[in-house]
Each structure stands twice: as C-alpha cells, then as structure tokens.
Amino acid sequence: MKPIIYSARDHAAINADKITCYYGPLETDPKTGDWCFCVYKNYLGGSPKEVFRATNEQLLDVAAGEKPSDLLIAGLALYLSK
What pTM was computed for the model? Predict the structure, then answer.
C-alpha cells in the first residue's frame, strides 16, 4: 500500500500498510484535554495497537510550528528517536 498523507485545519495523519500516525482532536490527553500525537500498528487491519503517544506539550518542545502538520512531523521525530 502506498502511504496516504493528509492534513486539514485541525488534524494531520499518515496511513500506511502497517502503521498509522495521527495528530488531532480524536486523541486527547486525559489529564489536560490537549490533543495528542499517536502511532498505531494494524489500525486499518481492524485490531489497532497504540505503540506511541506524545502530548501537545511534548510536541511543541520540538515542533517547527503549531499547525497540525508541524505537530505530526514533531511526533514522528519523537517516535523515531525513542
């Protein structure tokens, strides 16, 4: 499957064969209510497993901007550096 990348005013995501990365209002921090970045395995396969989560505060520490696409890239950077 060719990866699908999309970005809108309030969210951004990458869907690929075995992994999905998402930043936006569908994933929030239970403590603060802030949006989060999440990485899932097998999201499109029906049994998703969350493998990484970063809060908005963590993302803003490394992000180049505040747009959803900027925070998606920051989340990917944090995930790849773990």
Answer: 0.91
